[in-house]
Specification:
Helix 3 packs parallel to helix 14, helix 4 runs antiparallel to helix 5 and helix 15 packs parallel to helix 21. This protein starts with a helix and ends with a strand. It has helices at residues 3-12, 24-29, 35-42, 46-79, 84-112, 114-132, 138-152, 157-163, 168-178, 180-196, 202-208, 211-219, 227-232, 236-250, 279-309, 312-316, 334-344, 347-358, 363-378, 387-415, 421-445, 451-471, and strands at 32-33, 258-259, 261-264, 504-507. It has a single domain (37-238, 263-322, 333-479), classed as Growth Hormone, Chain: A, CATH 1.20.1250. The protein has 22 helices and 4 strands. Strands 1-2 form a two-stranded parallel sheet. The chain has a two-stranded antiparallel ribbon with strand order 3-4. The protein is mainly α. 67% of the residues lie in helices and 2% in strands.
C-alpha cells in the first residue's frame, strides 16, 4: 500500500491511522459489502425456514379472518334475521378497517421497523378477534369486526419483513411458498366451520379462529428486525448482528470487509411513491391490487351465494334469488361446506401454476395471465350449468385469481426501495381493501338483481387489470432489492455505485 493510499484511507476510515504498515487489517478495511452481498453469501437455509413458518402464521390468521366472512354472513342472516345489506356490511366493515389501517401500519413499519409494525398489528387483531366472539348485538359485532379489520391491515408487512431476508434467486419462489400458508388458513377455516358450526355455533368459530394469531404472538419475540431497515437507519451494528446470526444458523460466513450503511432520515413519505420514476408503477399497482381483492373476495362470496341459490339455470334465465320475505334464509348445509372446501382447495393448484411461471415468464406476464384466465373461467357461468360444472369453473377461477394475488405480493416489495417499501405495501393493500369493501355489494346484493350484470362486472375488472399488469414499467425478475430510490437507474436497473444527496449518506464506518 502506497503512502498516498494510506493518507486517503485515513481520511475515509480513522482505523487506518492505527496501522504502522500496510498490513492485512488495513487491506481488509478497504473492502465493503452490502446487505445483498451478505444475503447472497449466506443463502437460503435454516434461518429462512424458521422465519417462513413464523411469518406464515400471520398469513394463516389473515386467511382465516377473511374466509370466516363468507361463513358468518349466511349464519347471522338466519340467526339475527338480518336483511341483505346488513349481511354485506359485516364483510365491508372489516375491509373499511383494513383500508384505513394499511397505510398507517406501512408508515409505522417504514419509520419504526418492520418487526414493530407486524407485532403490534397482530396483537391488536388477536385482542379484538377474541372480543368479537362475545358481541351481544349486531352493532357491537360490526364495531368489533371493524377493529379486527384495522389490525389485519398490518398483515402484509409480514411479506415486507420476509422478503428482506431472502437472496435474489430464492425470493420469487419463497414468497410464493409462504403464500401457501394463506391457502392452508383458508382450508383450515372451512374445516373448522364444518366441525364447529353445527354444534357450537359462530361464536366458538370466531374464538377458535384466533389460535394461529395467539401462537404467532407467543413466538414473535424471536423475530429479528430487517437488516435492510437497520442499514437504512444507519444502525450498522444491529444490521451486522442480525446478519451474523443468520450466517451462524445457516452455517455460512459473511463476506469480508465493512457493511455499507445508509443514513436515510426521511422514510415512509407518500409523496415518494409519486416520484418521476415511480408514479406510473404506483397507480397501476393500486388498480391491480384493487382488482385482485375485488375479484378474489368476489368469487369467495359468490361461491356461497350461488350454492345457496341452488338452481343456477333459473338464475341465468332472469329469476331473482332474493326470497319473498327479505328475512327468509337458508343455513349453510354440510354439502355447502364441502363444496366450499373443494373450491378453497383451488388455492393450492393456483399457487403451483404461478410458482412455475413467476421465475420463468416473469412477474408482469404471470399477473396478466392470471387475470385473463380468471375472466375466461367466469364466462361459462353466464350459461345454464349444473352444480358440478359450477364447482369446477369456480375452482379454476379461484385458482388463477389467488395465484395472481400472490404474484403481486412478490412484485410490489421488489419494485420499491427500502425507504418506502412498507408504505408501498400498505397503500397498495389499502386499495385492495377498497376493492374487497365494494365486492360484497356486488356479490351479495347486485347478484340478487342481475346475475349477468354481476358476472360482467367481475369479467371487465379482471380484464382491465390484466392490461394494467402488462403496462407496468419494470420487470423485477432477477433484480436485487433497492435500498434507496437513488439506486433506481434508467430502465429499472440497480447499481452498487455509491451516491450522495442532502438527506442520504452512505458510510462504512464502525
Amino acid at each position: 500500500m502506497t503512502f498516498e493510499c494510506v493518507i486517503l484511507n485515513n481520511m475515509l476510515m480513522p482505523e487506518f491511522s492505527k496501522c504502522a504498515s500496510p498490513c492485512d487489517r488495513c487491506v481488509l478495511l478497504t473492502e465493503t459489502f452490502t446487505v445483498d452481498d451478505a444475503l447472497e453469501a449466506i443463502g437460503f437455509g435454516k434461518f429462512q425456514w424458521k422465519i417462513s413458518f413464523l411469518t406464515g402464521l400471520s398469513w394463516v390468521a389473515d386467511a382465516m379472518e377473511m374466509m370466516i366472512l363468507s361463513i358468518l354472513g349466511p349464519q347471522l342472516h338466519c340467526e339475527w334475521r338480518l336483511p341483505s345489506y346488513k349481511v354485506a356490511l359485516i364483510t365491508s366493515v372489516v375491509f373499511v378497517g383494513m383500508g384505513i389501517s394499511s397505510p398507517i401500519w406501512g408508515n409505522v413499519a417504514d419509520k419504526y421497523g418492520r418487526k414493530v409494525g407486524l407485532k403490534v398489528s397482530m396483537c391488536w387483531t388477536l385482542y379484538y378477534g377474541l372480543l368479537s366472539a362475545f358481541a351481544p348485538v349486531y352493532g357491537w359485532l360490526l364495531f368489533l369486526r371493524g377493529l379486527v379489520g384495522f389490525g389485519i391491515g398490518g398483515a402484509p408487512q409480514s411479506v415486507t419483513l420476509y422478503s428482506e431476508f431472502l437472496p435474489v434467486k430464492s425470493r420469487g419462489v419463497c414468497i410464493m411458498l409462504i403464500a401457501a400458508f394463506w391457502a392452508i388458513g383458508a382450508v383450515f377455516e372451512v374445516l373448522l366451520a364444518l366441525m364447529v358450526m353445527p354444534d357450537l355455533g359462530w361464536r366458538w368459530l370466531l374464538g377458535f379462529s384466533t389460535v394461529p394469531l395467539a401462537i404467532f404472538v407467543c413466538f414473535c419475540f424471536w423475530l429479528p428486525e430487517s437488516p435492510r431497515f437497520d442499514v437504512l437507519s444507519g444502525r450498522r451494528e444491529k444490521a451486522m448482528a442480525t446478519l451474523t446470526r443468520i450466517a451462524k444458523e445457516n452455517g455460512k460466513t459473511l463476506p469480508q470487509g465493512r457493511l455499507i450503511t445508509y443514513n436515510q432520515n426521511e422514510r415512509g413519505r407518500i409523496k415518494d411513491l409519486f416520484a418521476p420514476q415511480y408514479w406510473k408503477t404506483t397507480l397501476l399497482l393500486w388498480f391491480i391490487w384493487f382488482s385482485n381483492a375485488f375479484s378474489y373476495y368476489g368469487i369467495v362470496l359468490l361461491t356461497t351465494e350461488l350454492f345457496q341459490a341452488g338452481d343456477l339455470c333459473a338464475m341465468t334465465q332472469g329469476a331473482k334469488i332474493e326470497p319473498d320475505c327479505s328475512l327468509e334464509c337458508r343455513y349453510l348445509t354440510s354439502a355447502d361446506y364441502k363444496d366450499l372446501l373443494w373450491t378453497t382447495l383451488a388455492e393450492f393448484p393456483g399457487l403451483l401454476v404461478v410458482l412455475l411461471l413467476v421465475d420463468y415468464i416473469g412477474r408482469k406476464k404471470s399477473m396478466a395471465l392470471c387475470f385473463v384466465m380468471f375472466s375466461l373461467c367466469i364466462l361459462p357461468l353466464y350459461a345454464c350449468i349444473g352444480r358440478i360444472a359450477l364447482t369446477i369453473f369456480i375452482f379454476i377461477a379461484r385458482a388463477f385469481i389467488s395465484g395472481g394475488y400472490q404474484v403481486v405480493f412478490v412484485y410490489t416489495p421488489e419494485v420499491f426501495p427500502t425507504e418506502n417499501r412498507a408504505l408501498a405495501m400498505g397503500t397498495s393493500s389499502a386499495m385492495a381493501r377498497l376493492g374487497a369493501l365494494i365486492t360484497p355489494f356486488v356479490a351479495q346484493v347486485l347478484l340478487r338483481t342481475s346475475v349477468y350484470l354481476t358476472l360482467s362486472v367481475y369479467c371487465s375488472c379482471s380484464l382491465l387489470a390484466g392490461v394494467a399488469s402488462w403496462l407496468l414499467p419494470f420487470e423485477t425478475l432477477g433484480r436485487n432489492l433497492q435500498e434507496s430510490s437513488l439506486d433506481q437507474e434508467a430502465g429499472g436497473q440497480t447499481t452498487s455505485t455509491p451516491r450522495q444527496s442532502d438527506n442520504t449518506t452512505r458510510s462504512a464506518d464502525q
